[in-house]
Amino acid sequence: MTESSLRRVLQQCVSLLMVVRLQGEVTAPEKLEAPVELPFTLSCALARERPGDTVRQVRWLDVQNQTLLTYQPGQGDSVSGQQHVELAAAPKDTSSITIRRVGFRDEGCYTCIFDLLPSGSDQGLTCLSVTSRITPDANQTAVSGKRAVLSCSYGLPEKVQQVVWSHTSGQGESRDVASYARRSDPMIEPPYQGRVWLSASLSHSQLTIQPVAIPDEGCYTCLYHTHLEGPRSSTVCLATYVLPKPQVSYKTTSPGVVEANCSCVSRPPAEIVWNVERDNRTMGPPVTTQLPHRDGTTLVISTLTVRAGLLKDVSIKCLVHHRGLESAIAVSMNTKIGTALAILISVTTVAALLVMSLCFCLWKCFLHKEGEDV
Ligand SMILES: *[C@@H]1O[C@H](CO)[C@@H](O)[C@H](O)[C@H]1NC(C)=O
Ligand SMILES: *[C@@H]1O[C@H](CO)[C@@H](O)[C@H](O)[C@H]1NC(C)=O
Ligand SMILES: *[C@@H]1O[C@H](CO)[C@@H](O)[C@H](O)[C@H]1NC(C)=O
Ligand SMILES: *[C@@H]1O[C@H](CO)[C@@H](O)[C@H](O)[C@H]1NC(C)=O
Prior knowledge:
Blueprint: H1 3-25, E1 26-27, E2 31-35, E3 40-46, E4 54-61, E5 67-71, E6 80-81, E7 85-88, E8 94-99, E9 108-117, E10 120-131, E11 134-136, E12 140-143, E13 148-154, E14 160-168, E15 174-181, E16 187-188, E17 196-198, E18 204-209, E19 218-226, E20 230-241, E21 247-254, E22 257-266, E23 271-276, E24 287-292, E25 298-307, H2 308-313, E26 316-321, E27 329-332, H3 335-373
The protein binds 2-acetamido-2-deoxy-beta-D-glucopyranose (4 copies).
One 2-acetamido-2-deoxy-beta-D-glucopyranose is lined by residues 249-251, 259, 261, 289, 301, 303.
């Protein structure tokens, strides 16, 4: 082996040793993801080589190479630095700091420097990328003709260029509804103009539909186009209700037998039950039929057959239950209530007539008097 080649090998050994030394002194995770708006802890560890070294001071530099925090290990009162970070508990020869609430500006690379005596200082680098999840609303229901508001929130609006809302119907057809890009007006696709609005916000995107129609049912996806992180999306589903307006009709089908129908159109189909005060004069259980309509609603008819005498004696009610109603709608087919109503109406009419004739009398007397005076 020649002298020069030996020298080369030696040089390589030395440089290799140096790399090992440089890399081995301070270790820190190269890349970390920190969720926005939460505390996050960064750590560096010193892999001490020489037993003679002592750590005199630890310094942390922020993404702009400004001092973030410094302290002398073992001396609690030596900590100084910026308000938004604090020293975290860490084992010996490890340094940890906590960013109290991670924000968009905290993204970047942090340097931790261990000042050692007597051998100088060693440093490590750890890079933070700030992330956010999209928080969608819970699934929604809206009453046909009323308003529906769907929303998505994203914690890092600074990273977002555009948010696009699309609708996927129950049949799987998907189409864009509206979009909003930074420094522009929200854009509504032509088929939705006039009944859909989008908020001019990237952090809290809100899609309003009014009036809601049955075809608006389905799932809505908010798609965030972001720098670096690529597209992010989330989905919220909307169900449209049509509330029932029940009606009761009845007719005598054969002598002494009355057939009563309680019917309503709704979406989803309503459930109809009959409330007949304890009595055994109904002729079998009610018969329910469902007729789906093309517009997505369903006509439900419940037919109850009773003996005619029953109508005079007890209260018969049809109760309509529907998911969109807080409590069931009761429709009475009771003739007793009819009689009561008739009595009420006649009493009111008689009273009104009395008051009117009284007024008429007074007016007559007054006019008469006035006539005398002139
Ligand atoms: C911080 O310092 C490092 C070298 O120590 C340099 O590479 C980096 O560009 C600096 N960053 C800023 C924001 O000045
Ligand atoms: C919302 O509804 C969709 C479909 O109806 C369902 O797949 C999804 O799990 C629901 N999400 C929540 C949070 O309930
Ligand atoms: C009740 O509904 C049925 C259809 O389901 C109809 O044939 C019948 O005439 C209706 N009866 C009354 C009293 O409206
Ligand atoms: C109905 O109940 C009454 C007593 O509550 C009984 O006398 C009558 O026989 C019953 N009628 C039928 C048809 O079951």
